[in-house]
Amino acid sequence: MEAISERQKEALSLAYFEGFTQAETASTLGIETSAVKSRIRKALAGLRRCLGNEQF
């Protein structure tokens, strides 16, 4: 997962692997909900680029 930053990995992991809501993720990371949305969106875009957009 080198295609995404550590901050993006944190947000993605909490939301997808730990099942946190966006609000819970924001609270845990000490950021705004809008920042969580942005980090997850950018992380998914990075993963799509890395995987060649075949499965998305």
TrEMBL record:
Pfam families: Sigma70_r4. InterPro entries: RNA_pol_sigma70_r4 (IPR007630), RNA_pol_sigma_r3/r4-like (IPR013324), WH-like_DNA-bd_sf (IPR036388). Residues 2-48 form the RNA polymerase sigma-70 region domain. It comes from the Bacteria. One of its GO terms (molecular function) is DNA-binding transcription factor activity. GO terms for biological process: DNA-templated transcription initiation. This is Sigma-70, region 4.
